[in-house]
Write a structure and sequence with these properties.
- The structure holds 2 protein chains of 2 kinds.
- By secondary structure, chain A is mainly alpha-helical.
- Chain A is 68% helix and 2% strand.
- In chain A, α2 crosses α7.
- Chain B has 3 domains: 235 residues, Rossmann fold (3-Layer(aba) Sandwich); 78 residues, no CATH class; 210 residues, Rossmann fold.
- Chain B contains 23 helices and 20 strands.
- Chain B has a 6-stranded mixed beta sheet with strand order 6-7-8-3-9-10, sandwiched between helices. Chain B has a 6-stranded mixed beta sheet with strand order 16-17-18-13-19-20, with helices on both faces.
- The chains are: A mainly alpha, B alpha/beta.
- At the A-B interface, α8 and α9 of A face α2, α4, α5, α6 and α14 of B.
Chain lengths: 270, 588
């Protein structure tokens, strides 16, 4: 049933990774990306991948989820690999046929890129798997807080994100209901050419917009009743605290970065 | 001490053009005077558009008076500097629980108001936990709102207000969109807050049984206070109430009927218990009514079956952890021309069941026949079935989209590929049967809620389906709107002779019209029989958690006191007739 959809891909849990401060997690995840792009050698990349696999083990997220997170970007990965394979020229072709020439450098680079993309996606997914959307929003709001000084609407942005997250399931359900109602009146939603299909969407989109505006209006009044007046003077119930584990994580991540940089300078390694 | 004081309040809704000139003025309130003492439970009644919501919005300065004054705890609501004091003192809860919740986690939502007020984090935590316990939702604190039922969501909305520690809560039809179970939960919470926590409650409602539980009732009409008294005195004025589109509890109606027939009984009775007691003290000539032999409609041997379900099973989300059997092995035949009422609580599978009749849902197992044909058979176009079996969904006004009412009604017929001439004919006929002919050229978005509902209904009627299925057609309407739409449906049934399936939570609505009743429970057919026969098992209905009409509950109470007027009591009319035979001794 549509009600059961999960928003984001958060898997509640109690592991060390789950318990980490979401701000630290977010920053370290970005640092992890930096590490992946710093690594110039297979050894470095491999260490990065082993590290993220280790984190998955710590978080007790099922390994099948790693595969699931890779699946949607598979076409992109194949595309990148083929491009690198075909167009990267080296000195002596390993294989040539008609206008296609494949060099060992090409094979190396595609394999490298492939591994890097995989590590990237798997690392990003770990963040969304172990952090609830609300924690993420919180982390973003607090990390961006200094930008308030240059009048960047940090609070407004995070409020909008929260409300959007809150209303996605409601509006999905609503869309479902409107679609049933119009189908019951003979609407054909999945037949005909693109123009007919676009036209068939009107009876669904208009009621949806009307209802969304009505909801927005009512929500605004309800928020006013609860003394909402922007971010000024607002406190938060949930306080984010850094714990020793966060510092350990930061230390580990910097060690990893240092290691990868050092590896880049050791010529004998692949 | 008066928590709310309203003096000569007038309010106009003013529409202005681009240059600020007034183009339209609607007076919503005129010269309202009202005081609410601290700790009172006040119910406000009135049909839609009588100004009660406008009045409520003045209680916490969402609106400020055009003329006159409103004081909250002695503070003038037009004093903008004290706005947050006012809103902390008087909290407000609205009709639609979905549109009041802001956060994605229950406890975060409850924390919203104290966070806005700059309360220190530790105290917010205490307030949130306390508020959630007050509404009995503490164990759901980490749930997401969309995982909760309507009644639970509404209780979260109430908790969100309580977290401000208000002294008064104003609720604008908080139970209108809920099922009977959710309504009971919310009423229980309201009473707990009022009785045990001493919070003043102003409850706007369309349910007379809810108003009967208040300390005081105010009846509004045309922007004025019409009556202001304790509930029993208000409901005793049944005729005046009906004149302004309201209703009275069934037991009061019964007492009024008896009194008008010369029985010496007070009109000021609003609860079953006192009514049963008052009746038991009457000088009765007999204590057991003779129940007349019923002429059961003879089983028509070859009555045409218009729709039939065979071994129907439907499962959601097969193969996932969410797998659930919504409908379990249902066999059902609907005869042509029948008016079938379908009841069952939320989650009993009734909504899933009805969507099988026009192929919106494909059964997991089993077969659906309409007019003798298997609708999922090879030679059947499912769209043709949808024109044969029309479904009007709950809150059907949400499906309106066209520029004019006429065009919207024409949407279905146009999809059928009919000629312009035929479409026009059908639009007019459908509009007439729903009483909206005068609105055809208006935009559907300009209409009142009840009119929109009828417009949506006409949109399905215009397809002239053989079977018309209505899901909660009267939900959320005021008593007048409810009577109007149900009356029109009944009239349509009589005139067209078509088959109607009416789904409702409200047993009162169903028993008024249905010749047969289908009771669904946990995805299966609990019983499917003539209305009288179903009600002979009314205690079983209560056992599976269904609400029976108040008058049925009364008849059971009387039985406990030794007065038996039969098991088949579900209308006040019948109860009054039986009682009169006991009183006057006209037993044959």
């Amino acid at each position: 049933m549509i009600k059961d959809i999960t928003i984001g891909q958060y898997f509640p849990g109690n592991s060390v990774i789950h318990k980490m401060d979401s701000r630290v997690k977010l920053v370290l995840d970005i640092l992890y990306l930096v590490i992946l792009f710093t690594a110039q050698k297979f050894t470095g990349l491999l260490i990065g991948i082993l590290f993220i696999v280790f984190c998955y083990m710590l978080s007790r997220i099922k390994f099948i989820m790693i595969l699931k997170s890779i699946k949607p970007i598979l076409p992109l990965m194949i595309f990148t690999a083929i491009l690198n394979l075909l167009f990267l020229k080296g000195e002596t072709p390993l294989f040539s046929w008609w206008i296609i020439e494949i060099y060992p450098e090409g094979i190396r680079t595609s394999a490298f890129m492939l591994l890097r993309i995989i590590a990237l996606i798997v690392g990003m997914s770990l963040l969304t798997y172990t952090t609830s959307p609300i924690m993420l929003t919180d982390a973003i709001e607090r990390l961006l807080n200094p930008l308030k000084k240059i009048r960047f609407p940090v609070h407004e942005l995070s409020m909008m994100m929260t409300i959007a997250l809150r209303f996605i399931p409601t509006l999905v359900e609503e869309t479902d209901k409107i679609m049933s109602a119009q189908k019951a009146r003979g609407a054909e939603l999945d037949n005909g050419n693109i123009f007919r299909r676009a036209k068939a969407l009107i009876p669904i989109l208009i009621p949806l917009f009307v209802s969304a505006f009505k909801r927005a209006n009512e929500l605004a009044t309800a928020m006013e009743c609860r003394c909402y007046h922007g971010g000024e003077g607002r406190t938060r119930m949930r306080q984010l605290h850094t714990a020793p584990r966060d510092y350990v994580a930061i230390a580990v991540m910097f060690a990893l970065l240092g290691g990868v940089i050092v590896l880049n300078f050791i010529p004998v390694l692949p | 001490m008066d928590i709310i004081k309203v003096e000569h309040l007038c309010y106009d809704y003013v529409a202005t053009d681009e240059e600020g000139k007034i183009i339209e003025k609607n007076t919503a309130l005129s010269d309202v005077n009202l005081t609410v003492p601290e700790g009172q439970f006040l119910a406000v009644l009135g049909h839609n558009g009588c100004g009660k919501s406008t009045l409520a919005k003045h209680f916490n300065a969402i609106l400020t008076p055009t003329e006159g004054k409103v004081f909250v705890d002695g503070i003038d609501t037009s004093d903008e500097d004290r706005l947050f004091d006012i809103r902390q003192t008087v909290g407000m809860v609205f009709q639609n629980p979905d549109n009041q919740l802001v956060a994605t986690i229950v406890e975060e939502d409850v924390a919203f108001a104290p966070e806005n007020l700059g309360v220190p984090p530790k105290e917010i935590r205490e307030r949130v936990d306390d508020a959630l316990k007050q509404v009995d939702m503490y164990e759901f604190r980490e749930h997401a709102p969309h995982q909760l039922s309507g009644g639970q969501k509404q209780r979260i909305a109430i908790a969100g207000i309580i977290a401000m520690r208000p002294r008064c809560i104003v609720m604008d039809e908080p139970t209108a969109m809920l099922d009977p179970k959710g309504r009971r939960e919310v009423m229980k919470t309201i009473k707990h807050l009022n009785r045990d926590q001493g919070i003043t409650v102003v409850l706007i409602t369309h349910y007379m049984e809810e108003a009967a539980q208040a300390d005081r009732v105010v009846v509004m009409d045309k922007g004025k206070v019409l009556m202001d008294d304790v509930p029993r005195k208000i409901f005793a004025r049944a005729k005046e109430l009906r004149a302004v589109g309201l209703d009275v509890p069934q037991v009061t109606e019964l007492c009024v009927m008896l009194e008008e027939n010369g029985v010496d009984i007070s009109r000021e009775i609003i609860f079953e218990d006192e009514c049963a007691k008052a009746i038991s003290q009457l000088p009765l000539k007999s204590r057991t009514a003779v129940i007349p032999e019923k002429k059961h409609a003879e089983e028509k041997e070859n009555s045409d079956i218009i729709a039939k379900l065979e071994n129907l099973t439907y499962k959601y989300s097969i193969g996932t952890p969410f797998e659930k059997t919504a409908v379990n092995n249902v066999d059902l035949s609907i005869a042509k021309g029948e008016f079938v009422g379908i009841i069952g609580h939320t989650g009993s599978g009734k909504s899933t069941l009805i969507q099988h009749f026009n192929g919106l849902i494909k059964p997991t197992e089993g077969t659906v026949y309409v007019d003798g044909k298997n609708i999922w058979g090879k030679d059947v176009n499912i769209r043709d079935i949808r024109f044969k079996v029309g479904i009007v969904f709950q809150y059907s006004e949400h499906q309106l989209f066209e520029e004019t009412v006429a065009k919207d009604i024409a949407y279905g017929p146009r999809n059928m590929g009919l000629s312009e001439e035929e479409i026009k004919k059908r639009v007019n006929a459908a509009a007439e049967s729903m009483g909206i002919t005068h609105l055809l050229e208006k935009s559907p978005f300009e209409l009142s809620g009840g009119q929109q509902r009828r417009c949506a209904l006409a949109g399905v009627l215009a397809m002239e389906p053989d079977v018309l299925i209505l899901d909660e057609p009267a939900a959320g309407l005021d008593p007048k709107g409810r009577d109007k739409i149900l009356g029109l449906i009944k009239q349509y049934h009589v005139q067209s002779g078509r088959t109607i399936l009416l789904v409702s939570h409200s047993m009162e609505d169903i028993v008024r019209f249905a010749t047969k009743v289908l009771v669904m429970n946990k995805g299966s057919v609990f019983c499917y029989d003539e209305t009288d026969k179903v009600f002979e098992r009314s205690s079983e209905l209560t056992d599976i958690g269904l609400d029976v009409p108040q008058i049925t509950r009364l008849s059971r109470k009387m039985k406990e006191l030794g007065i038996d007027i039969g098991e088949d009591i579900y209308t006040t009319q019948r109860a009054a007739e039986r009682l009169l035979t006991l009183i006057k001794g006209q037993n044959k």
